[in-house]
Automatic annotation (TrEMBL):
PANTHER family tied to this protein: CONSERVED COMPONENT OF ABC TRANSPORTER FOR NATURAL AMINO ACIDS, CONSERVED COMPONENT OF ABC TRANSPORTER FOR NATURAL AMINO ACIDS-RELATED
Protein name in the entry: ABC transporter ATP-binding protein
Pfam families for this protein: ABC_tran, BCA_ABC_TP_C
Positions in coiled-coil regions: none
SMART domains listed in its UniProt record: AAA
Biological source species: Amaricoccus solimangrovi
Length: 260
């Protein structure tokens, strides 16, 4: 589905991504791990159009999408979330979801004045879709809560829900577990697995929680110093000597589920 070839992203003399090539298969949940500063988020930002690469190519279903801006990639079904959730804090959870679908007739004053029926009909459809997402994620108890009042984990669920409001082909999740308690992290993981298995969503996710990665992801891609270091099933990757060496001195050995 996504093919990245010899991608490089340089910031002056800093080679944040330095010749990385990866493949993300359709309907997979691919994990992307690596020490801090490995280039993971920069790679995501280049794929998702936030940075134009120094060199290299990105393809989606065979189409060259290198350097296309995020709004164009959004319409092609490529979505990216961030480590810090980007919710509309003064809107409710339901309203946040209803903001996502593009091209709603109510967005123009002309339609609001002269085509109120079309505006109401479309709004009803979007609300119905939002309610389906709320039911799927089991967040009905906060549907009318202002998004700014949600916990970190609830905001991550809302971000996941926003990707469900459009026909996403692939979703890039950046540290979905950051600042999330264990109970909500399991809920988020369950939702990702269900979306993958029941609706065919393709995911690529950055995460430092190795247990979470091992539970959800196959394959796992390891980056270090801007390059792809290893790739394979979670157990194989965690036993790889080069992967263990890349993490030495960064505390991973002391984390549950870390390479031994």
């Amino acid at each position: 589905m996504v093919e990245v070839d010899d991608l490089r992203m340089h910031f002056g003399g800093i080679h944040a991504v330095d010749g990385a090539s990866i493949r993300i298969a359709k309907s997979s949940i691919t994990g992307l791990i690596g020490p801090n500063g490995a280039g993971k988020s920069t790679l995501f930002n280049v794929i998702a159009g936030h940075f134009a690469p120094t060199s290299g190519t990105v393809r989606l279903d065979g189409e060259d999408i290198t350097g296309l801006p995020p709004h164009e990639l959004f319409h092609k079904g490529l979505l990216r979330t961030f480590q810090t959730a980007h919710e509309f804090g003064t809107l409710t959870v339901r309203e946040n979801l209803m903001m996502v679908p593009p091209g709603q007739p109510g967005e123009t004053l002309w339609n609001a004045w002269f085509r109120p029926g079309a505006v109401r009909a479309r709004e009803a459809m979007v609300r119905e879709r939002a309610d389906e997402v709320i039911d799927f994620l089991e967040i009905g108890h906060v549907a009318e809560e202002y998004a700014g009042n949600l916990s970190g984990g609830q905001k991550k669920l809302l971000e996941l829900g926003r990707t469900m409001m459009v026909d996403a082909k692939i979703v890039f999740l950046d540290e979905v577990g950051a600042g999330v308690n264990r109970t909500l992290l399991r809920t988020i993981g369950d939702a990702i697995v269900r979306l993958n298995r029941e609706r065919g969503y393709t995911f690529c996710l950055i995460e430092h929680d190795m247990d979470f990665i091992a539970r959800l992801c196959d394959p796992v891609i390891v980056m270090a110093e801007g390059k792809v270091l290893a790739e394979g099933p979670p157990d194989v990757v965690r036993a790889d000597e080069a992967v263990i060496e890349a993490y030495l001195g960064r505390g991973l050995r002391n984390k549950p589920g870390a390479p031994a």
